[in-house]
Each structure stands twice: as structure tokens, then as C-alpha cells.
Write a structure and sequence with these properties.
Strand content: 25-35%
Number of helices: 10
Distance between the termini: 76 Å
Shape: elongated
Structural class: alpha/beta
Helix content: 25-40%
Number of strands: 39
Mean pLDDT: 94
């Protein structure tokens, strides 16, 4: 950088520019004063060269430069456009090729942490489970900090690492990366903005970070208000969303006036219209409806129906109750849960429940309110086409960028869910040992037929899992097995891990090491799973049992897929055609329905299920032919 020449200063002054001290304005060698007009400079200012022309989507061109603005203590990179700043830009380092137009205030005041170190009071409104977030974080770290408060020393250690990282991030200068776009915004105060980010029409952003890159850009849109936040790469926060003390993971979307307070939102989530407070949202959590409230809740791979609600009002000493919905759970429209409660994996809730249910011993179930009496239908979701479709769609909707710290285990049947299924088998076998028309488990009623069907479904799921595991182990070349000391597995913010690994959290030296540890562990999980399964199902990987294991696997796969196909067929039954065929000329209901929904045999997911069924037959024939 060099100081301005006398002729350059004269040219700038003739173009309406002022400076408190022209010697404090330094420029690149190729600087051209032609593109600086009506600008006031204050403090130390560095300017790059201005040679590029920006062309808007409608074709309107703007030459890079600075027009109608006040800059105080700023560094402006090459080929930026800064125009029509209503107040000023202060204490910012701006990268190359960035476009800023029609903004109110863009400033850092004093020492800023940019959202690092903010404590998100997830899950418990009364506090005690705060997650100290930062821009080098992950869903796994967040879950560990919130859920395992009994590990006092480890939690204190992780918090100290966040504190140290936060101290290193504090600065009196904010940063805006390369090729960012900031237009039509109000006040942006103490916010770091990554490369490629687009901020368009946001009202107020204060004390935060918008992580972004040109290959995984983030978007903050119209009327957004956010305080004390971290937005990760490829995030979209738009359309009047309001966030206070929130972390939003990669690929997630928040918009349509959604209001969130003290929420930790992992990757690939979607939140629109509704409201959330003290929420830990694991991967693929979805809420789309205006009347939906999510409060003091933990969940993942989750869907909230319209008007679904929870409350923690059964207290006298403060709002300390909480609800845990294990992965895959769903809340039907107008459902209600009174905390505390804990639902097993892939549970669907229908109706109102004030009995504080614990269904972790009966996963994949329907929890049903029958005129005020709670019933549970065990294992029903194992034969639901919706469950299989969800399991199929999640990997296809992955918005994480390469190297994302949030890690996800996608398999529906895994050590965590299988452990719950095994518990379900034990529960139902014990209940069915005494004949009855109905049974009671944890205050929930189970019809005898539901119990019998649930036990059969659980056993089929176990047979499918064992066969899947055996075939995968052989396809991977029969790798060595790793054995953990404990047989317990944890769903750690979307990653299924052996509980033993949590003992190592107190030894990680920094946050980057912690994230690297989980990334390394992810590559070892199959070996740990094989070791766990070999102990749980003796002889599973021995040749002498292969025929029996694959025979049970084949039967279970065929029955479960056919059950899902039968369930899908209900979507094409005459009852679903109500409201179709409104053309008064002729009997056109079938034609109208087919025009919109197609035919059962042509449905893409039905075809996918049939293809899976064909693959099961082929794999079974190939496997047994060599025995």
C-alpha cells in the first residue's frame, strides 16, 4: 500500500470526498480515484484497486468503487462496490469482489466476539444445560455439552476450550470475506461475514458470525433479526425469522417469521412459521407450521405436525422439565405432550398426552390418545412406507459441505435403535407370557393383538439387521472387529457412537482436535458395530450360521417390504380420491386423480421398493449358491 499523491487527493476532493487526515488513507499501486465519489474517510483506511464491473440479474451494470459512503478504520479489498451507506461503515476489513449497497450501519464497536462464546440454554428453560457455541463447533460437541452435565470435569474442560477459542476470536475489527453481497440491510453490528455470503434485506444482525464460502454460500434474507448467533455454511435464514442466542448448522433453513430463542439447530434442519424455545434440534429436524411450538425439547430426524405443542408447566420450582424424542419421532397435527417425557426411536404421537410417557422400551410405535386413554401400538412404524421413505430421503437432502463438523449416521437400524428393539422384545415377551385382552406398560395400554404384532415386527427387524450386517461385513472383506468396553451406544447429536468414547472428551486439547476425533471415530464405527454385534449375537459372522442368518434375513426383508408396499397402496384407495373429479362433465374422478397423483405401479418410491425387493432375492440367491 502507498499514500495518496497530491493529484489523487485533488481528484477525490473534486469528486465530493473528505478526509480527516489524507495521510491516513493508503491505496494499492493500481488505485484509480475516478471511482471514489462523495465519500468521507475517517481514521485509518486502506483501499484496493477498482477495475471490475458488477452486472445485476436484470443486466444493470455498476463499476466497482465507493459512492456515497462514510468509512472509518476500514480495509477495502480489490474490485469492491460500496454504495449508498446511510450511516457509516466502521472497523471492518472487507475482502475482494464484495458488493455492498444501500445499507444503514455496518460497524464493530469495541472488542467483539462475533457470537463466539454465546451460551445457548438448550433443552431446559431453567438453565443448567447451556451450550457455549462458537464458529468451530459441531452437533456432537453441542449434544455432549447439553446432555452429559453429570460429567462435570469433561464439561468444564470443553467450556474452557470454547472460552480460549473465543478469546482468540475477539477483535475490534470485523471481517467480510471475498465475493460477499450485502444489500438493502438495516443495522449490522459486530458480525463477521464469510466469503460468498448474501445478506439481502435483513433488518438487524448483532453479535454473530455468518460462516460461508463461495462453494457453500449462506443467505440471510429480508426482515431477519438475529442477536448472539452462529450461522454455519450453506445456511438460509430468511423471510422475517427472529433468532436470539441460536446456533444454526450447515444446510439448515429458518424462515417465514419463525421465532427461536436459545436453540441449537444442527445440520439439514428446516424451521418455518412456528416458534421454538430451548430446543436441541438434531439433524433433519423439520417444523413447517405456524401454530407449532417446540419447547424444552430434544429430537432429530423429526417432523412436527401442524399445531403440535408441548409444555413444561407441571412445575412449582421453575420450568425445569424437558422432553426427549429419540431419532425419527413424529408429532401428528394437534398433538400435545406434557413434559417430562421420553419417546423411543421412530415414535409417532397422535392426540394429547399428559401422562409423561416413557416409550424407550417400545420403539417404532404409535402413541395414541383414545378418548383420554393412552394406547401404544408397538413396532407399527417398522411396516410403514413413510418410515422407509424417510430413511431413503435423508441422505438425498444432505446440504453439508465437504469437511463439515456435523457428522450423521443414516442407517435406520443401528446399535442405538437395535438396543431399543431388543428391550421391546423383552417387554412384550414378558407381557404376553400372561394371556390378557389388554396390557399396561408404564401407564400405557397395549391391546393383545398389537403386542403380538409388535413382537413379530421387532423380531423381523432384528433378523433384517443381522443379515444386513453380515452381508456388509463380507462386502468389506471381513474386516477386523473393534470391541468397546461397554455395550451401550449413544445417539450423539446424530452420530451413533459407543458410549466409551465419551470418556475421551476430557483429554482433547482444543476444539479442532475434538472435531478431528469425531471424524476419525466415524471411520471406525463399522468395526465397533461388528464387534458389538458379534458379542450380542454369538456366531453371527461364523460360516456355520450363515445359511440360517441369511434365510431369516431374506424372509424378514420380503415381509417388511411387502408390508410397506401394502401401506403405500392405501394412498391410491378410493377413499383418498375424495375431492377429485370436480369437472361436472362425465365421471372423471379416476382420471383427475391419476393426472395429479399418477398410478400406484408408476409411483417412484413404489418402484424403488420393488427394486429393493428384487435386489434382496438376487443377493440371497448369490449368497446361498456358494454355501
Amino acid at each position: 500500500m502507498r499514500t495518496l499523491s497530491t493529484s489523487e487527493i485533488n481528484a477525490l476532493q473534486q469528486q465530493g470526498c473528505l478526509a480527516d487526515d489524507w495521510t491516513a488513507v493508503t491505496v494499492a499501486d493500481a488505485f484509480n480515484p475516478q471511482y471514489i465519489r462523495n465519500v468521507r474517510f475517517s481514521g485509518s483506511v486502506e483501499l484496493g484497486r477498482f477495475e471490475q464491473t458488477f452486472v445485476a440479474a436484470d443486466g444493470f451494470p455498476r463499476h466497482s468503487g465507493i459512492y456515497n459512503a462514510v468509512l472509518h478504520n476500514c480495509k477495502v479489498g480489490d474490485d469492491c462496490y460500496i454504495g449508498n451507506v446511510r450511516d457509516h461503515i466502521a472497523n471492518y476489513s472487507i475482502g475482494n469482489n464484495t458488493f455492498i449497497n444501500n445499507v444503514g450501519l455496518l460497524a464493530c464497536s469495541g472488542l467483539c466476539s462475533f457470537g463466539n462464546g454465546v451460551k445457548v440454554a438448550a433443552l431446559n428453560e431453567g438453565g443448567g444445560r447451556e451450550i457455549a457455541v462458537c464458529d468451530q463447533f459441531s452437533s456432537q460437541l453441542g449434544y455432549f455439552m447439553a446432555m452429559f452435565r453429570n460429567r462435570v470435569e469433561a464439561i468444564s474442560h470443553i467450556e474452557s476450550l470454547v472460552d480460549a477459542y473465543t478469546e482468540g476470536k475477539k477483535s475490534s475489527m470485523g471481517t467480510i470475506g471475498n465475493a460477499a453481497t450485502i444489500v438493502n440491510c438495516g443495522t449490522i453490528s459486530g458480525v463477521n461475514i464469510g466469503s460468498g455470503a448474501r445478506l439481502d434485506g435483513c433488518s438487524l444482525l448483532q453479535n454473530g458470525t455468518v460462516l460461508s464460502s463461495t462453494d457453500a454460500p449462506s443467505v440471510v434474507g429480508a426482515d431477519v433479526i438475529a442477536h448472539d448467533f452462529i450461522f454455519c455454511k450453506s445456511v438460509k435464514v430468511t423471510a422475517g425469522a427472529q433468532l436470539l442466542r441460536c446456533y444454526v448448522g450447515e444446510g439448515s433453513q429458518v424462515g417465514e417469521q419463525f421465532a427461536a430463542t436459545d436453540c441449537f439447530i444442527s445440520c439439514n434442519c428446516q424451521f418455518f412459521h412456528g416458534e421454538a424455545a430451548s430446543m436441541f434440534a438434531g439433524p433433519y429436524t423439520v417444523s413447517h407450521h405456524k401454530a407449532t411450538l417446540l419447547i424444552a425439547i430434544s429430537m432429530s430426524f423429526f417432523n412436527a405436525g401442524s399445531g403440535s405443542n408441548q409444555s413444561n408447566h407441571a412445575y412449582k420450582l421453575g420450568p425445569n422439565h424437558q422432553g426427549v424424542l429419540d431419532r425419527g419421532s413424529k408429532l401428528a397435527s394437534s398433538s400435545y405432550l406434557l413434559w417430562p417425557a421420553h419417546l423411543g426411536a421412530f415414535t409417532t404421537v397422535l392426540g394429547s398426552h399428559k401422562e409423561h410417557p416413557d416409550t424407550t422400551g417400545l420403539p417404532f410405535s404409535y402413541l395414541i390418545d383414545n378418548h383420554g386413554v393412552p394406547y401404544i401400538s408397538p413396532g407399527t412404524n417398522l411396516k410403514s412406507v413413510g418410515t422407509l421413505r424417510d430413511a431413503d430421503k435423508f441422505p438425498k437432502r444432505d446440504g453439508r459441505s465437504e469437511g463439515c463438523s456435523d457428522l450423521v449416521s443414516f442407517n435406520m437400524l443401528n446399535p442405538f435403535t437395535i438396543a431399543q428393539i431388543l428391550r421391546g422384545v423383552a417387554v412384550l415377551e414378558e407381557l404376553l407370557a400372561e394371556p390378557a385382552d389388554e396390557y399396561v406398560y408404564g401407564g400405557l395400554r397395549i391391546k393383545a393383538k398389537s403386542a403380538t404384532n409388535g413382537l413379530e415386527l421387532y423380531r423381523m427387524a432384528l433378523n433384517k439387521y443381522k443379515g444386513d450386517l453380515l452381508l456388509r461385513w463380507e462386502a468389506e472383506g471381513q474386516p477386523a472387529l473393534l470391541t468397546a468396553q461397554s455395550d451401550v451406544w449413544v445417539d450423539l447429536g446424530g452420530l451413533i457412537v459407543p458410549a466409551d468414547v465419551l470418556d475421551q472428551m476430557g483429554a482433547v486439547k482444543d476444539l479442532a482436535t475434538a472435531n478431528e476425533f469425531f471424524a476419525t471415530l466415524e471411520g471406525q464405527l463399522s468395526a465397533y458395530e461388528y464387534g458389538w454385534a458379534a458379542k450380542l449375537f454369538p456366531g453371527l459372522f461364523e460360516a456355520k450360521q450363515k445359511m440360517a442368518v441369511l434365510g431369516d434375513w431374506h424372509e424378514a426383508c420380503v415381509r417388511l417390504i411387502n408390508s410397506a408396499l401394502d401401506d403405500a397402496k392405501k394412498e391410491f384407495a378410493p377413499a383418498t380420491m375424495l375431492g377429485y373429479g370436480l369437472d361436472p362433465v362425465g365421471d372423471c374422478k379416476d382420471a383427475d386423480f391419476k393426472a395429479l397423483r399418477g398410478e400406484y405401479d408408476e409411483n417412484s418410491f413404489v418402484k424403488s421398493l420393488r427394486s429393493q425387493l428384487d435386489e434382496v432375492h438376487v443377493r440371497y440367491s448369490e449368497a446361498v449358491s456358494v454355501l
